[in-house]
Amino acid sequence: MDIKDLKTLIKLVTDTDITEFELENAEEKILIKRGPSQEIIQVQAPQAPVVTAVPPVAAAPAAAAAPQAAPAESAPAEDDRYKTINSPIVGTFYRKPSPDADPFVKEGDIVEAGQTVCLVEAMKLFNEIEAEFKCRIVEVLKDDASPVEFGDALFRVEPL
Residue 23: pLDDT band by 50, 70, 90 thresholds? Predict the structure, then answer.
């Protein structure tokens, strides 16, 4: 295909609503795309952590490990009353709707289900992160304007 024909094809694509044109024959393959590429964003709910028990190696170490196991068991029981609000996307964490505004929530605040607790900016789009259940904010785990990854804990909360 010569340059004249190629220019004609490009003009055809730009003058119509066509966003993609592909031509293939035995000798050549031409692909013309225009406009911004579509972005597909998938959000997956974070999964609960898997806890596995390690069997004791010998009888003597098992007896020595027993006193240590009791505090380890009480710590998860204490942590069981707390849950976290996690980031559903990668982006930048913001506690406030604007730099001069008050934070959405502070430690000790009671939050209703569906209430916005923060923003996560991704690709210049501000996503409101909402509480999934009524809770009390125990601790803010991220600094304002800090980067967050998918599944990062943003707040430690106590369900009510």
Answer: confident
